[in-house]
Amino acid sequence: MSLLQSEIDTPELVVAKFGGTSVADYASMSRCADIVLSNQATRLVVVSASSGVTNLLVELTQANVNDERRLVLLKQIAQIQYAILDELGRPQDVAAIIDNILSQMSVLSESLELNRSKAVMDELLSTGEQCSSILFSAVIREKGTASDHFDVRQVLRTDSHFGRAEPQIEVIATLTHEFLQPLLSHYVIVTQGFVGADEEGLTTTLGRGGSDYSAALLAEALRATAVEIWTDVAGIYTTDPRLAPNARPIAEISFNEAAEMATFGAKVLHPATILPAVRQKIQVFVGSSKAPEMGGTWIRHQVEDTPVFRAVALRRDQTLLNLHSLQMLHAQGFLAETFATLARHKISVDLITTSEVNVSLTLDKTGSDSSGQGLLSESLLQELSQHCRVRVEENLALIAIIGNRIASTAGICSRVFNVLENHNVRMICQGASPHNLCVLVAESEAAQVVNALHQNLFE
Ligand code: ADP
Ligand code: ASP
Ligand code: MG
Question: pTM for the whole thing?
Fold first, then answer.
């Protein structure tokens, strides 16, 4: 077998990301450290905050927490860190850094009472990942391998859109080569997912679930050979295994299909994760850190099997905006104006259907920012109301059937609509992409619809 020159020059480099449940406690971290050490090519580790910590931090950022509750939350976070420190035998240097971060948490949460600054909220939200990265690195060292933690804010440059910051790809590449890459030949480096910094060095976050994205961005900057996403399921399944017990793991899936799944709610991957991987053609692996021997899913540029039906994804918490305007009839510019208004409010439209005098748009609440601030502000609604009548519907769920050639295969709609015959479908979108067919239903019926579709299409 002959190797390409680029393959000879570039040594293998794997970036491994471990999610919240994978770094929940000492035993989980220790299992994950074994996964890292089992592959010499794994030199960079990206971690989430220990399970539950980001939720506690989000609660600390909310306006309605009183002092008593604040202390309870801080104590809960501290207990999670100290339990891990205790198992490590409380090394003094590590304990001192953790204590310092815990007191920063206290100061930051207190300062939010006076000034509800989004920059301070992000600084506070980032402390969960700061703790887990320091502790994980200590667990690797305990196993006899040189390891250090690395402050990702040195390299993961973003804009200043706190709570949902946009990464700046080229700057990240330059900074990574200068500050991170040289360390990888000496240490297994452990760094924080979810966190970045703007040009002024202020801490930003990438939105909930953003650690997958961080891992892919760093892999892109380092031109890694693969990114491994280690989580609590053995890969990407035909649907969320929590919803359908008969869901099956998928061995191999294309970038396109995986991107659609992530976009349409398969929480196992943050929606933006695939973008950097596609840009650099980096393979992505998804597996379970509790059962690495079970294997998982490989996401690749090209795959052999491209079935018509690949998976069913569910995204809860959808908002439907119905805009009505008689001016729209045979007129131009109404949609342009609407989209411009939404863009000014940093809202990305998801699905769209139109009729003569109505436009319906869905907005994804899971796309709100890290501290869970809502999407629809009063000022946005007021602006929209100036040129149309606005009706807002909540408590909806979007179900996407993901696959290949969906728009060009006969009989798909009849199979899907047969399953849906007893449900009220609020909106249907099909045709724009060959990879999906989406229906909007009441949140209360969502699980039932996903199960029925899964049974009919996959079992
Ligand atoms: P982590 O904390 O490791 O990032 P997440 O909770 O974000 O983990 O994602 C893993 C979860 O994604 C699983 O526990 C599962 O319930 C959910 N999930 C949703 N859709 C799918 C799917 N199609 N395949 C696998 N898991 C899925
Ligand atoms: N800790 C962050 C969250 O819970 C980021 C992540 O886990 O991906 O959303
Ligand atoms: Mg996740």
Answer: 0.92
